[in-house]
Amino acid sequence: MKIHVLSLFPDMFTGVFGASILKKAQEKGAVELAVTDIREYSVNKHKQVDDYPYGGGAGMVLKPEPMFNAVEAITEGRKPRVILMCPQGERFTQKKAEELALEDDLVFLCGHYEGYDERIREHLVTDEVSIGDFVLTGGELPAMTVIDAVVRLLPGVLGQEDSHIQDSFSTGLLEHPHYTRPADFRGMKVPDILLSGNHAKIEAWREEQSFKRTLERRPDLLEALELTDKQIKIIEKIKSEM
Fold this sequence. Notes:
By secondary structure, the chain is an alpha/beta fold. Helix content is about 35%, strand content about 15%. It folds into 2 domains: about 1-150, Alpha/beta knot, CATH 3.40.1280; about 185-240, Orthogonal Bundle (Trp Operon Repressor, Chain A), CATH 1.10.1270.20. The chain has helices at about 15, 20-25, 65-75, 95-100, 120-125, 140-150, 200-215, 230-240, and strands at about 1-5, 30-35, 50, 60, 80-90, 105-110, 115, 125-130, 185, 190. It has a 5-stranded parallel β-sheet. Strands 3-4-7 form a 3-stranded mixed β-sheet. Helix 4 (about 95-100) links the parallel strand 5 and strand 6 (about 105-110). It comes from Solibacillus silvestris (strain StLB046). This is tRNA (guanine-N(1)-)-methyltransferase. Specifically methylates guanosine-37 in various tRNAs.
């Protein structure tokens, strides 16, 4: 996969792209990450990329020319998904991450100031994505978040190919609790079932704990699931205990 980011502050990505899973993914050849300064494509000798809004109002608006020039130059005729990081966009979810992970080519647009010229939205962008109902100073941090969520899903990136399958939201549920050594830490003990060696019972416990945690913290997620009779009984049991 190729991922290209257009930003006014490309240095923000240096540490994130050069560490942890994103660094390893590049070393394994699973992804190519590149960041370009939007100012390089300004048509103004002063490298101006924003201007006052028509009709007046506070703030500055990103001009269309640099964005169009940049995307056309880096895509070279290809038609990738062009993703605008924007608080007005579609709420980012694990399902969206899985969808984007199937692409070969992604371009992320990160803006600042008051907003974008509307022609960027209408004629350049394929997806508008938001990471939540709040406003940040720019699209860089949201882009990093989405890219991290997408890249970890690519084949060969994680140590175990199915590591992401049990992640929270991948199954529609929150993930079950995890424990490691020591089995007894300051009197706080690991559940006996996890030490039993009975894998069938362990899987059943984990499934029940996923439902329990989801009921406690995100009951809204259950509304979108098609539950089996067995899962309905699990939920009824948990509710009676709660």
